[in-house]
Amino acid sequence: MLCGGGIGTKGLHPYASCNRNRSQSPEQDKPLTSKSQSPLASYREKLKLFWALSRTPHGIIDMTTPCMAALVWLGEFPSPAIIMVGLITVFAGYTAVYALNDIIGYRSDRAKLEAGGFTGAAHASDIDALLVRHPMAQGLISFPAGLAWAAGWGIVAAAGAYWLNPVCLLIFGAGCLLEAIYCLLWRISPYRSLVSGAVKSAGAMAAVFAVDPAPSPLFLLFLFLVIFFWEIGGQNAPNDWTDIEEDQRFGARTIPVVVGLTRTRDIILGSLLLAVLANLVLFLFSGTAFGPFFYLVTLAAGIYLLMWPAWVLYDSRRKSDAMELFNRASYFPLALFAIVVTRLLL
């Protein structure tokens, strides 16, 4: 593993040692405070690493997407049983799929780490790194433990999805398969971004089928378009923008690497514009009426969280602005969820 030579360790867990002495005992490698830690505190620290594996802070925000989708279509709150099982299923599904990303990409993440990856300033402000970036690649979680974590949550998600609607289980299975394909395409094709858009849409589509076995195909189409273009323009492309030097070094085939930053900024701005417009149409299919006030609030949220930071990036082409777009766009589903809940409560 490469250490020194000016390569920093920002983004690495403080207990992850790049230059461990082979003769050093495990006791010597522990932090000085470990002996004073209670078993409960030690358990909490270990659990944090598993939450980091599933990128839970970001995942919780993304979990509002299926909640928003179900409420928009239904136009009212579903029964308490569906709410309870649905929330457990959504949490389990997102926790499993996010962990699956690190499992499939374990070797490439290890290679990045050994070459001094995860060290840039952009990574330090990444919402995905609020806990620890890629704890399994850093050796903080064993591969079997990470696999067991993802499989366990996957079983919970599968059981809940089947209870809600067998169609939800099929969508969950397809989403897991697409996530694996997305990871494997890292060095093959920039069209992996299209796969990512489909993966992010899967949870919302399943949520609609959880509350209605026969939703409108047009509603599903516009729901897919909103999340698909939001994911490409607000998440995937900006995140790859911040990794462009690293991706070039490792031969990745991402949108910024293949088409360049000039065309990437066009893709980002165009995709987010389509997401904002498609979302306005989506609300027309809702089971409840959204008046002019809520349309204006929704449009304002789209401009503030998506269009404005995208325009700043379009003008500046700075990596820090790409990460700012990624972080701010991450809150778009949460903003839509808050708008919908507010409308249903009034």
Mean pLDDT: 87
Biggest sheet features: none
From the spread of the alpha carbons, the general shape counts as: globular
Second rung of CATH, namely the architecture:
Orthogonal Bundle
Query: Strand content of the residues, in percent?
Result: under 5%
Low-confidence stretches: 1-35
| Full CATH superfamily name | UbiA prenyltransferase
Helix and strand succession? Answer: HHHHHHHHHHHHHHHH
Distance between the termini: 57 Å
Total strand count, please?
Answer: 0
Helix content: over 70%
Nearest-angstrom radius of gyration?
21 Å
| CATH class wording | Mainly Alpha
Structural class: mainly alpha
Number of helices: 16
The structural domain count equals: 1
Topology-level CATH name? Tetracycline Repressor, domain 2
Topology diagram in text:
Elements (H helix, E strand, L loop, with lengths): L25 H4 L9 H15 L2 H7 L1 H11 L5 H25 L1 H9 L6 H4 L18 H22 L1 H19 L7 H20 L5 H26 L1 H6 L5 H28 L9 H25 L2 H11 L2 H14 L1
